[in-house]
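BUG: 3D viewer hangs when loading the predicted structure for this chain

Environment: internal workstation, default settings.
Expected: structure renders.
Actual: progress bar stalls at 90%.

Input used:
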Amino acid sequence: MGGMVVAPQIPAVESGVGVLRSGGNAIDAAVTAAFVQMVVDPQMCGIGGFGRDGPHADGTEICIDFNGTAGSKATPAMWQDIVIEQDWTGYGYHLKGQVNDIGYGSIMTPGTVAGMAELLERFGTITWQDALRDAIRISDEGYVVTPELWRLWNTPGYGLHIAFGERIRATEASRAIYTKADGSGYMAPGERLMNPDHTRTLQRLAEGGPREFYEGALARELAADLTDNGSYVTAEDLANYTVHVSEPIRISYRGQTVLTNPPAGGGICMAETLKIVEHEDIAALGLNSVEYIDLVGHAMKAAYADWYGHVADPRRFHDVPAICCCRTNGPASGTPGSRLASSSACRATRKRRRRRTSPSLMTPATRSR
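Structure tokens produced before the viewer hung:
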């Protein structure tokens, strides 16, 4: 089967391409590559992570949401007295002790294993064991530390943001994996990193299936460790975790149909941005010209304000007024969230675009961002 595999790390791409060459489909390749990516890029993803996917297969278009969920021991008021400030990006908060960012208190109920299994079960043609085979082999052989990975470990933090080095040193188990036994620092570029515990975990997943992670002996070990170290995630949270499958948001953009993920994901933010700029001749502005950046930037800002102010998890907290905050000029149609961007919003954006941002008016903090 023809196709293309894209991933940050070469071993993941090679494994995905191998699946395609062996007759597997795009989902087979994606899941296989993802598991390898979790091995060779450990600070960016892992079996303890979460995510979402929007496959289009056999005429079916769905969104598979396997985002992490807060543990059942978490309460709405548990951190209200230790908030330092909201991050300047608007994405999250900085707390005293950084308890929401590192350590056991920051852990959510992970969804990646369940998400990969859901994708394979619905659309895959290979077995769960086949999808894990390359990841197990590469983990067992160890992988070479790249200059990029070493640089990531050694890049200092800024402001209240935590350096990756601090994350690595946060627990004894993590220090044992990524730092040298003699205390001389991190593994260096070109050295081979071995993580036998990860290899054994992947082998247990292959043998026991995806529910081993949530209900089997592995789940019991995870739950015991989480409990002993003050996590908000319990054994019941792991056992009760489920993937959510839903219809995607659908919008029309310049005659094309665009599909993206519904709330609590950020797809509605992208959809609203597109509907705002749809009314403008973007091509005439020139890619990355001052006018282009000003228009698109204001559109993103307006969409983000709606997303940040209104979007939450509709299955667990409250309904998201996607229809109310975003509409088209024409009659309402399609799924919730498909009526995006009013003409008044477009006019406001055009009005704002007439104001030019001068570098001399930017504060040093603004320029540094």
